[in-house]
Structure formats: structure tokens, C-alpha cells
Amino acid sequence: MEAYNKYSKGAVDEAAFNYMLLGELGYEIAQTNFAHIVEENAKTQQLFHTEVEAFKWSLLSWQRSANQQYPFARVKLGDFNYYGLGTNTDYSAALNHYKIAADNHHSAQAMFNLGYMHEQGLGLEKDLHLAKRYYDLAAETSVDAVVPVALAMLKLRAIFFMDYMKDNFAWHSALIVFLDSTLGPHWDFFVMSVLLAIIPYLLLQYWQNRRQIAAAAQIPVDHVPVPPAAE
């Protein structure tokens, strides 16, 4: 509570130091709080000399918390290895942590991350069918994952369609090369963002037109302007 009160008052470094001491004694909640505070304030904290050193300590504390079977800490270990925070980027290690969180703790976030890594072929061979399986598991495990999974499945269907076009139409390969050269290797995210922006706009225009038509159909006859009679 003393550490929490310091954090609430803005004394972030003092709170982190107290949590660090308690974490050394084995308190899992203190390990988690210390890791979170240091990670979120890696650029501004004054406990460690550099941002890299702060991430290393945060990673160590997440590891200790994960060893005490805290599911979120296990997912964070995967994130740190995925993004290379406090360690080198290691997709295989990230994949292993996500799999532990998914299999042992039924973490929807870990399942979603596994789906993405199978979709992109990060740390393992690309497998769109396994990606779909993990996305479905994430949606079944948590209602909070339904919307992200729906968006991911929309993108996955587009990839399936492009693979079909690639296998059946020669011009598809030339199109992919053109998109890669102009928009970069992650052009599919750009296309999906554009589509997601266009769809609400089209729906808005549709409903506006419907309201205008309905309003025009309900104008009483006596309200229609009549031209003045010729003198």
C-alpha cells in the first residue's frame, strides 16, 4: 500500500523501488507492478542509467512473475522477445511463451498472437489454416477478442483470395510485385485500413440519402411553393 500510495501521488521511481524490493522477496504482485511501472516509464525513469537497462530489469521481473504462473506475465515475455525489448528479437522464444500462455492459461491474447505469427510466418513456417484456428480459439475464449478477430479474419480471407488468384492467374504475381515496390512489404495493412475507412463513409452516405428521400416524400402538398399568377 505504501508503494501504491507513492505511485498514486506521482512518485513513480520511489514506488518502483519499493515494488522492486518486495519483488526480490518473492511477492508476485510486486514483481508485476515493478515490471509494469518500469516498462511504461522506461524513457523517463531515474532508477537505471539507460532505457535499455530499464527494459532488461522489467523483463527479469516479468520472468519472475511468469514463473509464479501469472498468465499476463507470460504473454509479456512473449511481447518482449517479439519486439526485442531488453533482449534480442527472438520470434521462436516469443512463440514459445505465447504457446505456454495459450495452452496452460487459456489466454485469448496469446492465442491471437499465435494466429498472427502463423499468418505472417514469424518464427515458424507460414500456415494460414493454423492462423485461422488460433483466431477462432481467441474469439471463443474471450468476448473482448471478437472484434479484433473479426478484423483479422477479414484480412485472412483477403490473403486466401490473393493466394487463389496467384495460383490461377498469372497477372496476380505482377500485381503483388507492384504493390510491394510502391507500398512496401506490409501493403496489405494499408489496403485494409483504406477499406475500413471507406466502408463507414459509404454507409453514412447511404443513410443520408435515405433520410433525404424520406424527407422529400413527406412534404405536404400545401407546403409546395406555387408560382405567382401572371398579372
UniProtKB/TrEMBL annotation:
SMART domains noted in UniProt: SEL1
Keywords: Membrane, Transmembrane, Transmembrane helix
GO BP term, pick one: ERAD pathway
Record-annotated membrane-spanning stretches: 142-165, 185-204
Listed InterPro entries: HRD3, Sel1-like, TPR-like_helical_dom_sf
Lineage: Eukaryota, Metazoa, Ecdysozoa, Nematoda, Chromadorea
Name of this protein: Uncharacterized protein
Pfam families linked to this entry: Sel1
Source species, domain of life: Eukaryota
